[in-house]
Amino acid sequence: MAQAGHLGTADDSSGEDRRVFLLGFDADGRVVIARNNPDHARYVVILIPGVGAWPSGLDPLLLRAEVLCRELSSTPDDDAVSVITWVDYKAPASPSDARDPAFAAQGATRLAHFIVDRRVTAEAWGRGPGPQRITVIGHGYGGLVAGFAARDHGMDIDALVLLGSASAGTETASGLRVTGPVYATSPEVNGDGTPHGVHGPRPDSPGFGAIVLHPGPLSYGGDPTVRYLSSLKKIILGTR
């Protein structure tokens, strides 16, 4: 994947565009974009979208990251939080395509490598006190990508959230090799249509062993994070 810098321009008076960083892209449509510089952030969130995320639909994904970043930040110019939209895989175009685990398998390897690189880069260039706190949020089929990465490669992350995911590729949360806790929400609330029971049990089922999050009453433009903002903020900032 080719690497690039920020997307802003030198004459942008607001500074907003200069805080959007293109971390990688390639000709096949895979892309990784960060809101705020993740090298300097104390808290990093990696959002992995699912069905329909590739090759179109980038604008709503970036808006999702923007909303979450603003909710987590104490001030508009706070750079302690970076939210990364990670679409470094070819996501299934439809729920029918989501029956195929191959999309998740090829994305899992890339995600595992990205986490390793993230830790190395933060240690080399980070400015905040203490180690960087990383939370991975996989939405719908994106949860399967994260699940495969954790199962097959292991991930040094502080929390994994399976948001509206029908499955994580394992029978139980103990099969996910992550250093932090695993959280899950109902795939029937803000899921992405990935069929149930195809890739394993529901992560929010009692036997799976994840910490189940319950939705609030809010909704906004189909953004799956909004109804869980209260819980997500505590998880991401480490106050839960």
UniProtKB/TrEMBL annotation:
InterPro entries in UniProt: AB_hydrolase_fold, DUF1023
Domain of life: Bacteria
UniProt cross-references to SUPFAM superfamilies, sorted A to Z: alpha/beta-Hydrolases
Domain DUF1023: 29-184
Pfam families (alphabetical): Abhydrolase_8 (PF06259)
Name this protein carries in UniProt: DUF1023 domain-containing protein
Annotated source species: Streptomyces cyaneochromogenes
